[in-house]
Specification:
The chain is an alpha/beta fold and 288 residues long.
């Protein structure tokens, strides 16, 4: 099971419009990046100093989204600056000037030394992870205008990244994981295409989940088509193999099921999240 297409798709949901909780207002331009002359003079040294302390933005689209949602990008490199800026002209003119200010061209062999598997767009960057305290504040704030998605003991890193991308697209308040998977793992970041910066992403124990009514997805639950999901819902999804943990099941106020043809065993995790968020966002699916 893999994450969605890393080059992105365009689309919208009619009716209940997504509400983003971080980043510039639609139609505005992100603030220009702060000048970092040391990163432009010696990007390799700055990169090596930051490795382990910053998060990797792997590819043009990850950098595009991170800049768009006000990430603190410390250094950005490319093996083909002309092509990267041409992509910005075509796909992201709102961040073209910011990309121009950030990107430093390095030889391809240097890029391969910095990043084990360079993205096909030959772009990579390092950014500061948002403060945990700020994310926890966002997740705990009530009333909320959009649900929190909880992945209960997920196992697949790519699936977790795809879910974060979905949550950002629908304007969810955030994504919380329980268990051992780090939602800021480089593979999750790759799957999320830089959209960790568009929503609050953290790992928490079940006992410390954000407030709000917990709707847990389970094959034995009520058909979701007969329910309206409130904006302050906590939407919980079990792991790809074992479903909901006993702790999460006990915390749930309501078990909810997705429509499924008999003899089909399950949906992909990201597909389940997409169906549930679409139901919340659609006319008649959100609480009045």
């Amino acid at each position: 099971m893999s994450a969605t297409d890393p080059h992105g798709t365009r689309g919208s949901v009619e009716g209940h419009q997504p509400r983003l909780h971080r980043g510039p207002e639609p139609g505005t331009h992100p603030d220009p990046p702060r000048d970092r002359p040391e990163a432009r003079r010696d990007p390799v040294r700055v990169w090596n100093e930051l490795t382990g302390a910053a998060v990797l933005l792997d590819g043009f689209h990850a950098l595009k989204h991170a800049v768009r949602f006000q990430a603190d990008v410390q250094v950005a490199v490319t093996a083909d600056r002309k092509s990267a800026l041409a992509l910005a002209d075509e796909l992201a003119p709102d961040v073209r000037d910011a990309m121009d200010a950030l990107l430093v061209e390095v030889p391809e062999r240097t890029l391969r030394a910095l990043v084990a598997r360079p993205h096909p767009t030959a772009v990579a960057a390092l950014a500061v992870r948002p403060p945990r305290e700020a994310n926890l504040h966002t997740l705990a704030r009530m009333p909320r205008g959009a649900p929190v998605v909880v992945l209960d003991e997920p196992r697949n890193l790519g699936n977790a990244g795809a879910v974060i991308r979905l949550a950002a697209g629908f304007g969810a308040t955030g994504v919380v994981t329980t268990g051992t998977l780090d939602p800021w793992h480089p593979t999750v970041l790759r799957g999320g295409a830089g959209l960790h910066f568009a929503t609050a992403v953290e790992r928490l124990p079940v006992a410390e989940l954000p407030p709000g009514p917990v709707f847990a997805l389970d094959p034995e639950g009520e058909d979701i088509r007969g329910l309206r999901l409130p904006d302050d819902a906590v939407l919980a999804f079990g792991s790809e193999r074992s479903g909901l943990s006993p702790e999460l099941r006990a915390r749930a106020g309501r078990l909810v099921s997705l429509p499924m043809r008999p003899q089909v065993s399950s949906y992909n995790l990201a597909t389940s999240v997409a169906m549930t968020l679409f139901h919340w966002s659609a006319p008649g699916g959100a609480a009045l």
